[in-house]
Amino acid sequence: MSDTPADVIGFYAGQLGVDEAAAESVLASALGRGGTFAELYFEHKRSGSLSYEDQQVKSTQASLSQGVGIRVVEGDAIGYAYTEDLSLEAMRRAAETAAQIAHGGGETEEIDLTAASYPADRYAIASPSTSTPLADKVELLRRADVAARGWHPSIARVDASMVDEEKRVLIVRSDGRLVADYQPLLRFNVSCLSELDGERRNARWGGGGRMGMAYFHDHSPESLAEEAARQAVLQQEAREAPAGTFPVVLAAGDSGILLHEAVGHGLEADFNRKGTSNYSNRIGQPVASDLVTVIDDATLDRSRGSVNVDDEGEPAGRNLLIEDGQLAAYMQDRISSDHFSVAPSGNGRRQSFRHAPMPRMTNTYMTAGQDDPEDLLRRVEYGIYCKAFSGGQVNITNGDFVFSVTEGYLIENGQVTAPIRDVNLIGNGPDVLSKVTGVGHDLEMSDGRWTCGKSGQSVPVGVGIPTVLVSGITVGGTQMRSGSGMSA
Amino acid sequence: MAGPTLSTEPLELAGRILAMAEAAGADQADSVAVSSTNASTTVRLQKLEKVSESTARSVGLRVILGGRQATVSTSDVSDAALEEAVRTAMELARISEPDPYAGLADPTTQARSTPQLSLYDEQIPDVDGNHRLSQALTCEQSALDADGRIVNSGGATFSTSVSSFALADTNGFAGAYADTSASMWVEVMAEEDDGQLRNAGWSTSERALHRLDDAADVGREAAARALRQLGATKASTCEVPVVWEPRMAAGLAGIVSGAASGEALYRRATFLAEREQEEIASPLLTIVDDGTLSGRLGSRPFDGEGVVTRRNALIESGAFQGFLFDSYNARRLDAASTGSAWRSVGGLPQIGSGNLSLEAGQSAPEHIVAEVEDGLYLTTLMGFGVNYTTGDFSRGAAGIWIRNGELAEPVQEINVSGNLLDMLARIDAVGSDAQWFGSTSAPTLRMSRMTVSGV
């Protein structure tokens, strides 16, 4: 069973000696030089990983990471320090270091801590994977290996792994809020190598979420492994991708990576507070085709990007970012919501207690439209159909973004035809979103496999999208082709 | 065999958990302990934005029991937590599977003394918050002052780090070293006539304070790079020569080094597999990995398994010399460790390069550009579009178009693509202007042809 917030609070007090009195004392040190706000982020994380390679267990790993990150806010500026040593003395010393951002006197008001609650636990679990016997996990990996090898004779190598963690988070703030959360996370990965006539092709697949072993009730290791094997074998017959600007149809699900890069990062409020995003000062303006509505939603059940509370102690939100093509709102953390005088949106996240929070996405998706997905393909005379991806990146300031397609096909005369080799696509956020000319009725969320990096911090996220037609994106293939395709 | 060590704590910690593992019955074990103090100051638009300072330490252990191995790590270093970590490691190892290649490094290859590598700058522990602040302010101010069109900033950061690394194993190896680093980074935005912004950043990173580039120069370089992107448009789709500026060429050296990993070879996930001693690249290309260069960020006296670091040629005048190995992958593939294991407290050793150097050639960089009638001068790459198994390369890019031998207008929102084997073979000029970027050095280079995708 997962911990309730009360269990987590009890765990910190009982196991680690961190109780309300200790927290209040550290907060007093943090505000000892007159900062306007202070927060303690306690984290206790147990994680494990198991990898199965070449038909045997290659490595088993367990780690424990615990500590507290202390932030003192003074206007727009912050002081930050952390310590892995949870003795009162070490925590006070870290608090004094963080306090140096402020230069005032030592008068602090009495802090009266009150445990805050949140509406629902979106990832309560019956059976944490972290306490599942290793032999059971090895069996899942073995099944993946057998399934991938059985899928095609050219599968020469299978690497499967499972990583999981359970995180107990306790956030204590100088405004009196105390909030606790138990956050499970699981991920299953399969990588396959196909070797045919000396030609090697590889592919990866996987999934997971804020789940325990129940993940495998709906997702068999076999299905994940066969998907990786299918993609690797498919690459054996892939031809060179074309070079130039063409219509692109994005398959439902993982193609949400386009949204994550094209608008997601640009709508994080820190960049907009600083005026360095190409979406700065554009609230209420059209930034996309009116077919486009985008939501960031931390409340999805058990999704990899979901949280009950963000890492600043604010309740998770469901935030409308773009409505019918118009920019509706940014994703906020504490500092930016103060700056814009809006409510925090629950997007303050961080990698660990060693990092200060900042505005981050959770699960970001485009809402379903009216179109029949098959119809969107039929509208393309010559273009690209994208299904699986390895990653993406964006330049916040000029809006250019890229994403790498690992399973793509040519579309010729409305039909999906030959698979193409790995290819990068590049576009400019508002430009590409204004070229969305069709949105399917088939919204799908990614299975939990994405991790987002920003300023050196990684956090788990989800993406989602229905099948979408974009009238033109630049495709970085090697095959020169004169003329460009048309789409209705 | 300690250098100027901050404290003896890491070596003591590594020894303590190792002794517990031996007492618990491990056949073999090694342990890693690290401690580091990191401090940084960020300013933006000449106002203080963030100050941080912390000391971190943690310890990791690998145990091997009847050929079965497991690793554990913990940031709680109390005796009780270490005992629990050892117990967990032993349990994990017992239910793991025997791997005949699992094991420690060959003791005869391990370091017996500490060479003088100048990894530690005595000045850095004494750098205070005021110095970090004034350097960050100077760096950003010089960028803001460079031109009236520099209108905004992503901020400037100056940071310092002092670290100790200790490794001990049950064959009797016990070693530690301390090192330092300092770095500075700035990003600014230049404004177009229509209000659109073009951004660029620049940075410097060294082991010793006095080797850092001057703060004002770093700021000016960032400003110049943002300014030269003003008016950027999209290029047309074509096949043209591409000139890689030194920083881009350094990234290419990193890709080659990744493909030369012995683990990638064992996984058959590299386009360099079965190509040892083949002429895979232009004879102008030489890339060397060297973990022994004095004062460089990629240098260390021994690797993550205690093996002495050394110089490893990867490509010599176009011929691929061989792969980088740790002990495990070397045993698997009947090779020898090249002193290339990197070790964090959590997990098994991983293969990586020390300092990478794409060696300078004979051509003046201006000359490399002057010989191009129509082509791309590449200054930015985006995304992850490198498939190490096939060598397919397709990435987002920006740069400056070359017309009649001169840098003409800036371009952006384009792709460059090719296959790495073709790309390496098509290098037809290598500049004399090699410079260091962190632990990698590279000059300007030119490829005779790549595909550029645009409008």
Can you tag this structure with a few keywords?
heterodimer, A: 488 residues, alpha+beta, PmbA/TldD fold, 2 domains, 7-stranded mixed β-sheet, 11 helices, 24 strands, disordered C terminus, B: 455 residues, 6-stranded antiparallel β-sheet, 6-stranded mixed β-sheet, 20 strands, globular, disordered N terminus
Descriptive account of the structure:
The complex is a heterodimer of chains A (488) and B (455). In chain A, helix 2 runs parallel beside helix 3 and helix 4 (134-151) runs parallel beside helix 6 (221-235). Chain A is built from eleven helices and 24 strands. Chain A is globular and about 75 Å long. In chain A, strands 1, 2, 3, 4, 5, 6 and 7 form a seven-stranded mixed sheet that branches. In chain A, strands 9, 10, 11, 14, 20, 21 and 22 form a seven-stranded mixed sheet that branches. Chain A has a five-stranded mixed β-barrel with strand order 8-15-16-18-23. Chain A has 488 residues and is an alpha+beta fold. Chain B starts with 8 loop residues before the first helix and ends with a strand. Chain B has two domains: 9-226, PmbA/TldD fold; 232-455, no CATH class. Chain B has a six-stranded antiparallel sheet with strand order 3-2-1-4-5-6. Chain B is of the alpha+beta class. Strand 2 of chain A pairs parallel with strand 3 of chain B, so a sheet runs across the interface.
